[in-house]
Amino acid sequence: MTTRYAALLRGINVGGARKLPMADLRALLEELGHGGVRTHLQSGQAVFTSEHGDEESLAAELARAIEKRFGFPVDVLVRDHAYLRAVAEACPFPAADLEPKQLHVTYFSAPVDEERFAPVDRSAFRPEEFRLGDRALYLYAPDGLGRSRLAEALARPRVNKGLTATTRNWNTVTRLVELTGA
């Protein structure tokens, strides 16, 4: 059975570092035997179909291929359409009433629980707030991610220890649902 996935690459094409042209990423995914390959934006999203593998093995395969081809490591998460749709549908914030730049989802490589975030004093960051989902964190940042003090606190190594995490704004979250559902 063919499944449609999104690959989320962390930290590429940011500030001129770790350049990975999307045309090259598409070609690499095709060389790995995947079909229906498309990329979204320049910041590391690709959708593809595969008849084999699971999210973890597909992510590991792509990460190895990127490092071999481009000479630098990249953290990769792969998620299928059903998961991406479920994350979007489970958003605890009123997404339709917010500007897309105010709402973000951080996808994690493994489940997370409240205990992991205990060191973060949520009240110190109001009106910003976050809530947890299935291998995801929803962040409401009214002034955007770039000005978010809470996002900075959530990105600290002691909070994310042992995880791969990558964040997308709400426009990208919903676009990936559309692209993987096509």
From TrEMBL:
Gene3D superfamilies: SP0830-like domains (3.30.70.1280). Signal peptide: none annotated. InterPro entries: DUF1697. It comes from the Bacteria. This is DUF1697 domain-containing protein. It comes from Streptomyces olivaceus. The lineage of its organism: Bacteria, Bacillati, Actinomycetota, Actinomycetes, Kitasatosporales.
